[in-house]
Design goal:
The chain is mostly helical. It has 3 helices and no strands. It has helices at 2-12, 24-33, 49-52. The longest helix is centred in the first third of the chain and has 11 residues, at 2-12. The relative contact order is 0.11.
């Protein structure tokens, strides 16, 4: 039950700065309705860069 609550919170209530302060659900819903959805680049994770070399 705790995992379901966390997934619900993450998808429907947790706002993301990279999405213009919108939730994952809002972004996905908009993308499914548009022929040319907005592209949100994935920011580079600097913590793992040292392992890529």
């Amino acid at each position: 039950m705790a995992i379901k609550e966390w997934v619900r919170h993450y998808s429907y209530e947790r706002y993301q700065r990279r999405f213009g302060v919108r939730t994952h659900y809002e972004v996905r819903s908009e993308a499914l309705c548009n022929e040319n959805p907005v592209q949100y680049p994935i920011p580079e994770n600097k913590a793992i860069q040292k392992y890529k070399a």
